[in-house]
Design brief:
Elements (H helix, E strand, L loop, with lengths): L12 H27 L7 H9 L1 H28 L4 H29 L4
Helix pairs in contact: 1-3, 3-4
Amino acid sequence: MAERYSSFTPGGTGWLLQRITAAFLVVVLAFHFFQLHFVTHAADVTFTGTQDRMANIGYFLTMVLFLVAGTFHGVNGVYNALVNQGLEGTPKKVMLAVLTIAGGALIAQGTYVALVMAGMI
């Protein structure tokens, strides 16, 4: 019988954050989908409407947290999937660096766009 292996340490910080971000993403994705497909129909989404929504501090903070949680969840999931497949040593360190830089760049760009859309820049 094959042994179960996971790069997540059960009860560890990475394991916990992966689960917290998953729960947060399910709730916020449902809100996002409801907002942009039922309240405002997709065909009616406009640049001005997006600016209006982003001007609301609650919506703005929710979308920025959505970005950060989604980025962390995805990057952490990809990294741990690679580790589970046997990535180790220098390639593991390089992949961690590449994913961290890519995740940081995604968050920086997304936050910049959110700030511009909210009229804060």
